[in-house]
Amino acid sequence: MASRLRYLVLHCTATPEGREVTGDDIRRMHLSPVSQGGRGWKQVGYTDIIHLDGTVERLVDNNEDANVDPWEITNGAKGYNSVSRHITYAGGCDRSMNPKDTRTPAQLKAMEAYVKDFHRRFSGVRIIGHNEVAAKACPSFNVQEWLRSIGINQ
User: Taking CA atoms, which of 42, 57, 134, 149 is between 20 and 30 Å from 85?
Assistant: First the structure.
């Protein structure tokens, strides 16, 4: 049974600045058994990934409506998955693996376009960072400040 979409959660891949992450990398990290270095999940954590060059890659299909159908659920934030859509950008750490906003100019442009389009279509859905619902640094920037800087007040 579908749940009403309540959140768009922004994430980072928690990888070093400048290192690309492919959809296949995400699938391997999330879906591989723990014994093989993965997380052993049944579904990846994100619907879309924003690559270093600003390209947006769809990882999990969805029907783009205001509901989260069971087949659309991704594992982005424990306790929020059935009511959220999750997107990530490649990066989020400096070369020493400390949290850092590493979004490239192309990623910033793509994320702004993605979020503005999402907000236009689903104005009642709250846009948050993963760090707003979990004790994590992800996505390594203050989402609410960034939203205000691009003209989204929620």
Answer: 149
Contact between residue 5 and residue 82 where contact means Cβ atoms under 8 Å apart: no
Question: Residue written as tokens 């959660």?
Answer: 9
Using CA atoms, how far apart are residues 29 and 61, in angstroms rounded to an integer? 19
Q: Is the C-alpha dihedral spanning 54, 116, 23, 108 positive or negative?
A: positive
Query: For the chain, how big is the Rg over CA atoms in Å?
Result: 15
Which amino acid belongs to residue 28?
R
Task: Give me the number of domains the chain comprises.
Answer: 1
**8 Å CB contact between 68 and 77:** no
For residue 8, give both structure tokens.
């768009």
Domain assignment present for 34 = yes
- For residue 104 the two structure tokens come to 């490239």
Residue span of the structural domain in which 64 resides: 3-149
Query: Which tens digit of pLDDT belongs to each residue from 39-65?
Result: 998 899 999 999 999 999 999 999 999
CATH number at residue 37: 3.40.80.10
Cα-Cα end-to-end distance for the chain: 28
The pTM assigned to this predicted structure is: 0.94
